[in-house]
Amino acid sequence: MKGVYPREAPKKLKKNNRTYYHLKDINFLALDPLIEKIRAQKVYMQKYRKAKAKGDVGKIKYLVKNKPKVSLNHLVRERYPDFIDALRDLDDPLSLMALFTIFPTHKEFHLSSEKIEACTKLLRYFELYVIKSHSLKKVFVSIKGIYYRS
Predict the structure, then answer these.
(1) Would strands 138-141 and 146-149 be described as parallel, antiparallel, or unpaired?
(2) Rounded Cα–Cα distance for residues 101 and 27 (Å)
(3) Which residues contact 146 (CB under 8 A, 6 or more apart)?
(4) Within a domain: residue 109?
(5) What are 94-136's pLDDT values in tens digits?
(6) Confidence of residue 59 (pLDDT cuts 50, 70, 90)
(7) Taking the alpha carbons of 32, 35, 36, 38 in that order, is the dihedral positive or negative?
(8) pLDDT over 70 for what percent of the chain?
(9) In the predicted structure, residue 61 carries a pLDDT above the cut 90
(10) N or C: which end of the chain has fewer CB within 10 A?
(11) Which residues pair with 139 in a beta bridge?
């Protein structure tokens, strides 16, 4: 996601169960705002579990009301600074949404019928836009779904 990949270890440090990264990559990731949000989520869960174990109803209500919200907007803005960049990479999300509309509702995977209906609706809007503007170059239909190429 951030261009940080595992590195090949030197021969003297080579062990099968370890993954090595450059120190500059780790320092780069440490400054990411998403890390702070993940830490806040972890602290929240610890406080919630502790309050639940003690049976403190007032604190549980307070914690549920003030649950930290994780927003990924900055990641999207970082990856796609311009609208044109987002349009160039639109084929993957559209293919995923086409696949998503085929799924049945499922409790374990947290797939509600509302989510699937929303994906279907968005996909239909996109298809209508493509028909009106004649802007799609290739479409690949397979057993798994419909894959779009703009």
Answers:
(1) antiparallel
(2) 40
(3) 95, 98, 139, 140
(4) yes
(5) 777 877 787 777 777 777 888 888 888 988 888 888 888 877 7
(6) very high
(7) positive
(8) 91
(9) yes
(10) N
(11) 148
If one counts the domains in the chain, the total is: 1
Residue identified by tokens 């509702």 is 105
pLDDT at 52: 94
Any domain includes 15? no
* pLDDT given for residue 21 in this prediction: 85
Tell me, yes or no, whether 92 lies in a domain. yes
Instruction: Kindly state the tokens that stand for 106.
Output: 């499922």
Query: Contact at 8 Å (CB) between 24 and 5?
Result: no
With pLDDT > 90 as the criterion, what percentage of the chain qualifies?
19
Q: Which domain holds residue 110?
A: 82-149
Query: Does residue 139 sit within a domain?
Result: yes
The pLDDT score that the predictor gives to residue 150 is 65
Beta bridge partners of residue 140, listed in sequence order: 147
3-state SS of the chain is CCCCCCECCCHHHCCCCCCECCHHHHHHHHCCHHHHHHHHHHHHHHHHHHHHHHCCHHHHHHHHHCCCCCCCHHHHHHHCCCHHHHHHCCHHHHHHHHHHCCCCCECCCCECHHHHHHHHHHHHHHHHHHHHHCCCCEEEECCCCEEEEC
